Amino acid sequence: MSYGREDATIEPDFIEADAPMVATGVAAANTDGTFQDSGSRGTLDETVLETLKRDVVDINSRLKQVVYPHFPSFFSQCSDGMGAASDNDISANCDLWAPLAFIILYSLFVSHARSLFSSLFVSSWFVLLVMALHLRLTKPHQKVSLISYISISGYCLFPQVLNALLSQLLLPLAFHIGRENHWVVRILSFLQLVIMALCLMWSVAAVSWVTKSKTVIEIYPLALCFFGMAWLSTIL
Amino acid sequence: MPSNNSSFLDIDDDLEGVDDFDNEPNPFDDATVPDSPSMNEPTMGKGNAVHSAVDNKGESAPLQGQMDPPAYDQVVGEDASGGPNGLRPGLINYYSRYFQLDPTQFRKRLSAVLTFRNDHNSENANNETDLYGAVWITATVVMINFTMSGGLTFIINEVIRGVRGDERFDRASQFKKLLHSIWLFYGYTFGVPFITLQVLKRDEHSERNMNFKGVPQLISVYGYANLIWIPICVILNILDLFKHLRTVQAIQWAIVALGWAQSSYFLNSQMSNNNNETQSGGKLSLSVIVVIALHSLFCLLFRFIIF
């Protein structure tokens, strides 16, 4: 008769068995949605311009989720729930288009299309790989693959592209105008450093937000990698 | 008879008496078995509906019913962390255990390097080896060597003096410095421990060879020993601006010697954890000599190649 008391302990078992079922239901619905998304892509009967435009819009919408909201403004406006949602989104459908585009632009700006381009291109990919490996190694419990981490950190390269554009193309134009004036040179050099710092903070904030890195242990290596790239674009 | 009684599944043995009582089915089973289908039914139905939406296979529902109790995603997570011994060394998850550490622990280790404390190492050296410090402390040293001289020149020339030149600093020397730092520091941190481990294994005179079971542990020690090169590289890079002065070169030598002394002391204290008899005995064992000789070689290379 003492067995009768065990009913109370058994029941939660069945209820628990119910819970993952619901979770898989949600996941299944999610994957269904993404399948439909990717199904609408890649149609052959459209012009190249349309395809390119769709890719650019795609990249831009992803940037809107991850990178744009984290411009260093010293106040945080994003909630955790939204972070989780877009993180799911990003790890579900990652692409290497944006990292490729950003790295090409970055190395083009920094190298001025000289022979340095190839080494910058390769080393940028290497830096992305190192960052992805670091994220993968410090977070073994998150089910995000190496490629998605490469994609995520590639998206967070966007501020570095801006940095390279500003400090390698636009500021040198100003330098040409005011080359002789010491004060112009001082102000512009200082501006270069400020832009570098801002873009570095932007990148680091974005990547630490999207990968949910909170401790120094997780953020510092990412910041070091981004610092290397920002430094190259400032000083070369 | 006894064999009949012991088996649970026999329903009736045509004998009356107390035995029949024993053969009565378990009330526990009674309570659960008829219940379970009725309780599973709604979940099965849900699973069926969901899976028919994804793929219209009839087998998916019973499969789902069998697989759901272990909560399969938890099993995967435990596989990555709980059973690292089951993972092969080729997998990324195998190495991820060397990168799991929390900030307080990390800070404690860093301060232990700088303050010559090695008392609490012996007990957690076995299970808490990390390669994080070895990789990223070394990366910091390399990054300082790469960026600092160029950065200082940039700030002095352009921000303070306001002079802009096209060939501001010799980039070639900067990149040479980067490459040399990479091979020297990473080669030393990740290559030399293999040699040291062999020496420690063959050294019968000291007890220290019991402390190290694998190369990762030694790599970790060598990596943390690199911590002293962070401030030293900062100072050397600043002094490098006044390289033409003879006194400055002497100061640079002195600072490198200081770094050599600190890091070799740290290496030795780590390798002979708590047994002071090797030091107090007065005889230097072979492993100490080899470790210090390799470290001196490394410091000389550092001084001559990078600065």
From TrEMBL, chain A:
Coiled coil stretches, renumbered: none
Domain of life according to the entry: Eukaryota
BP terms from Gene Ontology: endoplasmic reticulum to Golgi vesicle-mediated transport
Record's subcellular location: Membrane
Keywords associated with the record: Membrane, Transmembrane, Transmembrane helix
Major subcellular location class: membrane
Lipid bilayer topology: Multi-pass membrane protein
Spans through the membrane: 90-109, 116-135, 147-171, 183-205, 217-235
A single cellular component GO annotation: trans-Golgi network
Family membership noted in the UniProt record: Belongs to the YIP1 family.
Name of the protein this chain belongs to: YIP4-like protein
From TrEMBL, chain B:
Pfam families reported for this sequence: Yip1
Transmembrane segments: 131-157, 178-199, 219-238, 287-306
GO cellular component, one term: Golgi membrane
Gene Ontology molecular function terms on file: small GTPase binding
Keyword Transmembrane helix among record annotations: yes
Family as reported in the entry's similarity comment: Belongs to the YIP1 family.
Annotated membrane topology: Multi-pass membrane protein
Full protein name: Protein YIP
GO term, biological process aspect, one: vesicle-mediated transport
InterPro entries given in the database record: Yip1_dom, Yip5/YIPF1/YIPF2
Principal subcellular localization: Golgi
Name of the coding gene: YGL161C
Keyword tags: Membrane, Transmembrane, Transmembrane helix
Keyword Cell membrane: no
Location within or outside the cell: Golgi apparatus membrane; Membrane
